[in-house]
Amino acid sequence: MALFAADYRRNDAWNPVSLNRIAPTVIMTGSEAELHDASGRRVWSVADANTDAGTPEMHRKMMAAGSLGPPRSLPVVVAGRPVGTLVVRVPQGSVSTVDKEFHSSVNRLLVAGALIAALVALLVGVYTARRATKPITELTSAAGALAAGHRDRRASTVPNNEIGQLAKAFNTMVEHLVKEDQLRRAFTADVAHELRTPLAILRSELEAVQDGIRQPTDGVIRSLHNETLRLTHLVADLEALASADAAAFTLERHPISLTSTVADTADSLAGRFDEAAIAVRTDLDMVWVDADPVRVAQIVANQLTNTLKFVPAGGAVTLTLHEIDGWAELTITDTGSGISADDLPHIFDRFYRSRTARADGSGIGLAVVAQLVKAHGGTITAHSTPGHGATFITRLPALRQNGTARTARADQRPTV
């Protein structure tokens, strides 16, 4: 329409000769067109045009276009007034068929692309999901194996994220369970061993009396009584150990003077040390702790009793108590035979008895001490040179004298 309007403006009227220049443009679309002036008189037609562009029918065949559509009247407007009407018949499908084929091709490509993208996304999602859930699946499997009693399974700790940390924590827990199971088995075996000897003696003595091999003399009765006492002491030690294991849940803690507790405990054992001709020396500063006084007294008493097995007559035991960097540090040093390098790592193990001990014991006393110290948030260490005595250092968090907690220096925190 713009071409026809421009031609009219140029000539200020409809000029068939000038309009023939527009004819090739119309003919190449395969369209038929004729122009009427404002009065409705036909002034130009494509069929009458003299041009080398061929005919509209030829171009329709070249484009494989369909038949002509119905005529459409399009007004030609110049300077706001109608100056004529263009009646045009456009081939059906000449443009729309191409558009449809193009659109159809585009749609097929879009559908195919969407399907491929969805398939790729699905495969990537499945791979990512399996990779993300693999550690969880392995952890679940390891937990199931643990529940079934298989403690040799471990979870993979490959991912360095929260799942990997969880797997590490799980493996640590399994290691602790394995260790606890080993300790339980060893504990059961040790208890059986400790009970076997006195029970065997009691049985043999009683059977000998029953068979008439031995008479129930005072000596036999005394032997039976001694073995009964030995069993009683063993049961008491086992009860103490069980109590120490549960001490963290049963401690009756409150601010106490550790100085008074240590001094009172040493005084209560003074008679036994006098009988053994062992001197007890003290150097105690005033130190307060938040602790169970009964359990703390047991910690001190067990250590002092243990020295009686190693310190010969004429020896000495020294107790010192000081506050060092927020810790109440109790040091018990003796002049005994010392602890061998082989025995030293095991002195806090249950039922462990050094070969240098002068008297029989259950081997539970120091194990109870270690448990009680740990329950109070402290540590205990031992140092010794064979032939030069031993030193036990117990550290507990100290309090100010007004009962408030001190802050222990991190670099001074002792390790077991």
UniProtKB/TrEMBL annotation:
The chain crosses the membrane at residues 109-129. Keywords: ATP-binding, Kinase, Membrane, Nucleotide-binding, Phosphoprotein, Transferase, Transmembrane, Transmembrane helix, Two-component regulatory system. Its main location: membrane. GO terms for cellular component: plasma membrane. It catalyses: ATP + protein L-histidine = ADP + protein N-phospho-L-histidine. Its EC number is 2.7.13.3. This is histidine kinase. Pfam families: HAMP, HATPase_c, HisKA. InterPro entries: HAMP_dom, HATPase_C_sf, HATPase_dom, His_kinase_dom, HisK_dim/P_dom, HisK_dim/P_sf, Sig_transdc_His_kin-like_C, TCS_sensor_his_kinase. CDD domains: HAMP, HATPase, HisKA. The keyword Nucleotidyltransferase does not apply. It is found in: Cell membrane. GO terms for molecular function: ATP binding; phosphorelay sensor kinase activity. Residues 190-400 form the Histidine kinase domain. It is an enzyme of class 2 (transferase). Residues 130-182 form the HAMP domain.
